[in-house]
Amino acid sequence: MGSGLRLNMNALDYLILALYFVTVLGVGFAARRAIKTSVDFFLSGRSLPAWVTGLAFVSANLGALEIIGMAANGAQYGIMTVHYYWIGAVPAMVFLGIVMMPFYYGSKVRSVPEYLRLRFNRPTHLLNAISFAVAQVLIAGVNLYALALIMQALLGWPLWIAIVVGAAIVLAYITVGGLSGAIYNEVLQFFVIIAGLVPITVIGLVKVGGVSGLMGAVRESKLGEAGLHAWQGTGSTDNPLGAHWLGIVFGLGFVLSFGYWTTNFAEVQRALSARNMSAARRTPIIGAYPKLLIPLVTVIPGLIALITVKGLGADQGDLVYNNAIPLLMRDLLPNGVLGIAVTGLVASFMAGMAANVSGFNTVFTYDIWQAYFRRDRPDEYYVKVGRIATVIAVVVGIGTAFIAAGFSNIMNYIQALFSVFNAPLFGTFIIGMFWRRMSALAGFWSLLSGTVVAVATYVLYKTGVISFNSDLEESFWGAGLAFVTVAVVAAIITPLTRPKTSDELTGLVYGLSDTTLADDSLAGDAAWYRSPVLLGVVAVVLAALFYIPVF
Predict the structure, then answer these.
(1) pTM of this prediction?
(2) Can you tell me the distance from the alpha carbon of 257 to that of 252, in angstroms, rounded to the nearest whole number?
């Protein structure tokens, strides 16, 4: 960013931001008092109610990446960006709650890689633990870079100073308060983020003449009529996203979304911290309801920026798509409201990076350090290792932030990461969960080969060997090819190798439930309006209905 994005902050704006920082650190220190064991530090003692874990679940995803990246996509691709919410998130969140949480929570695993160790073998476990750890520090770097963009605009600091200062903020409260500090801050951050984004949407709509004025202006923009529709033109690749409906449905709606929401431990960890099975199942489904409405404060501002910011969409400088939200803040918001918006963006960064860092420190401690280096140490030893891992994650994240700085649209970068790290894992996971015959060796080679294919697809695209209409279309097809590779390799290797016995798979695969688990329901959990199935079906129906006006 250049000086043209400097925000005109006054004392009131800085006071709002300072009060937020004090509150966040206070929450972290308050959570420290409840940490007595490693389960308290890494999984909040499995004691939190569903509404807390549900809001933390969606807030962990609603990071600066989401805010900056989805607004950039709204400006670049138009209404088609809603696919990332209504088909690319809600169905997978519901599936996680209804189908997969019983296996996660019921088996009492502490992480997704640990589930793969029980279902397959230690090589599969180690491969996933390492790939997850790498993914989290890369994504943490994206969140750091996004925050640095805001801090650079706010204070005019050089990028590297903004990145280091931002990292120090999140390091403080996670190191002190563990997952509880992260989760309670994520609940707070959810409301702060919304409070910061709503004024941008409302004031922006007023400026362009309301919804009808915005629609008319988009028709006259470089997006044209296609910018106002989600599905029209997807019978071919002649649309702003450059994607066929098959790539959207299979690549995004199935492989990428299910791969992210159902196997990304940074999200699943929030549900594992719930106080019982019912709360764990409802966690992602509760999060699905606000997720339905988030496009109102991300995609719509992106369209407003396209209309009101002349020259938006440059390859470099102040007018890259990533700057859509900061540009709107500069142009639209009065002081006071500006402070709330800046605080909301800072909160979104902290929520997103906290999820990455807390996921990293848990997997590093339990699935790498404890499993392969130092077993059978006292519990307090692993809490100390977790705090050290938090520092490591933040320091490495500072380095990976400069990788993210090389992309004019960070959402394109993050989707490429998801296609490489999440899609092969989802294929291995879902096939192994529903096909009990799948062997341990098939699990390892499927995961490895799917990852290799996803990486190869991305490299061949970037080197010009193969072509796609956009970076996002490459992510859709890269994810799809990775999933198909996993399925094919599993089908080839499984008949040639010995499967695990039914006793070894009890509670880990569909059809072999663990009948030894006691009912952990609390009073009120059986109420009809708390049924995960009912809540999930309603969320999916609403997602389908929301498409009607923008079909």
Answers:
(1) 0.84
(2) 6
